[in-house]
């Protein structure tokens, strides 16, 4: 009989309140997730895929809102680098997000959405929630954790804080902490949302939503995901096909039209408050600070875990230098680590796009 590789969409309630880094506890947490493939008898073939900031659990299946294919369908599936004919793949919507897991839009004890009353969360909180999900699923140890961008932060956090839960860590296009520039770009996006009159201090549920602000936030962030060479090749300074210039009212340049489309389409599937909370969690992330100020300390208990780190030469958001810092920390505790910088023209988004060399690295490391 052929293995069942079809996706399975589910939601699980965590049985106990979830402790948070803020000192608060969050009761009634639900985690939405999808699974692909079948768990083997000894439960040793599970792989947890962590998604990025604006991603979700629909890693390799059609998105229920947009109708688009999964964000990593080229990587996850039967016979693909993360082979669902061999492995049981889990992808969960992170805590604080808006595709089924508990977040700002979820009902508080009074039945009204949390909105700004939702507690501050961290990357470690997101990982902690997913480790609780594994407990509910009866999975003690993972074959591997995999993630790119914010997903890579979660993969590193899992290794640092729950080293007994995984045998392999694949972290792609990520960092151990945000730079001032990273934080600055996120702050521009947050201010755009909060400057939208429809934000209403976060209490917009049931009324007009701050789509204009969220759209601008997405536009600003999307620029950081691309490379200058990629933008130049795709758009250059080409104008829209019309006779007169608009002096800023309409999109004169093709790149303007592209960014506006990215922003507007994003508002159909994402919650503005979730964007505020998750970007702040990314900005707070600092593995060294969490472990006494020395990055190597974060991985001291994970010295038996195998690591693979991948960067891209055109990624200026999380650079090769950022990732080499992680490699040096792993070397300092003698953790087995391999590292490769791949060449791709797409900037930070290279991990989501057609880069055959990445396929080979992932397949070789996952085994």
TrEMBL record:
The answer to whether UniProt assigns keyword Membrane to this entry is: no
Q: Which residues bind substrate?
A: 218, 349
Annotated ranges, domain AB hydrolase-1 = 46-352
Q: How does it assemble?
A: Homodimer.
Name the gene: metX
Question: Chief location of this protein?
Answer: cytoplasm
Compartment(s) where it occurs, according to its Swiss-Prot or TrEMBL record: Cytoplasm
- Does the record's keyword annotation contain Acyltransferase? yes
Q: Which domain of life is it from?
A: Bacteria
Q: So what does this thing catalyse?
A: L-homoserine + acetyl-CoA = O-acetyl-L-homoserine + CoA
What GO molecular function annotations does the UniProt record carry, in alphabetical order?
homoserine O-acetyltransferase activity
Pathway per its UniProt entry is: Amino-acid biosynthesis; L-methionine biosynthesis via de novo pathway; O-acetyl-L-homoserine from L-homoserine: step 1/1
Q: Name one GO cellular component term.
A: cytoplasm
Q: Specify the taxonomic lineage.
A: Bacteria, Pseudomonadati, Pseudomonadota, Alphaproteobacteria, Sphingomonadales
What is the protein named?
Answer: Homoserine O-acetyltransferase
Enumerate the active-site residues. 149, 315, 348
The EC number(s) given in the record are: 2.3.1.31
- Give a GO biological-process term: methionine biosynthetic process
């Amino acid at each position: 009989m052929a293995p069942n590789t079809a996706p399975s969409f589910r939601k699980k309630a965590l049985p106990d309140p979830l402790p948070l880094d803020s000192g608060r506890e969050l009761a009634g947490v639900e985690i939405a997730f999808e699974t692909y493939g079948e768990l083997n008898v000894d439960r040793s073939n599970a792989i947890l895929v962590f998604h990025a900031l604006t991603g979700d659990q629909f890693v390799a299946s059609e998105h229920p809102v947009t109708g688009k294919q999964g964000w990593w369908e080229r990587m996850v599936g039967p016979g693909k680098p993360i082979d669902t004919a061999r492995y049981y793949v889990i992808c969960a919507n992170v805590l604080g997000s808006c595709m089924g897991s508990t977040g700002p839009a979820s009902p508080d004890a009074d039945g009204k959405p949390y909105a700004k009353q939702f507690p501050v969360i961290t990357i470690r909180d997101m990982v902690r929630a997913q480790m609780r999900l594994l407990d509910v699923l009866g999975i003690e140890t993972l074959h591997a954790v995999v993630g790119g961008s914010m997903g890579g932060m979660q993969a590193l956090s899992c290794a640092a804080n729950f080293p007994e839960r995984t045998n392999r860590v694949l972290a792609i296009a990520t960092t151990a902490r945000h730079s001032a520039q990273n934080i600055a770009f996120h702050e521009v996006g947050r201010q755009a949302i909060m400057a939208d009159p429809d934000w209403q201090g976060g209490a917009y549920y049931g009324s007009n939503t701050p789509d204009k602000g969220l759209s601008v936030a997405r536009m600003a962030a999307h620029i950081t995901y691309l490379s200058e060479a990629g933008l130049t090749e795709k758009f250059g300074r080409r104008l829209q096909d019309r006779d007169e210039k608009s002096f800023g009212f309409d999109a004169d340049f093709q790149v303007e039209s592209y960014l506006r489309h990215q922003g507007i389409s994003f508002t159909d599937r994402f919650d503005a408050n979730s964007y505020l909370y998750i970007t702040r969690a990314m900005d707070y992330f600092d593995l060294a600070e969490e472990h006494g100020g020395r990055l190597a300390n974060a991985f001291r208990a994970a010295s038996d875990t195998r690591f693979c780190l991948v960067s891209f030469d055109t990624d200026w958001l999380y650079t090769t230098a950022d990732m080499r810092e992680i490699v040096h920390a792993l070397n300092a505790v003698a953790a087995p680590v391999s590292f490769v910088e791949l060449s791709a023209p797409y900037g930070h988004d290279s991990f989501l796009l057609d880069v055959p060399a990445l396929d080979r690295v992932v397949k070789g490391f996952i085994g």
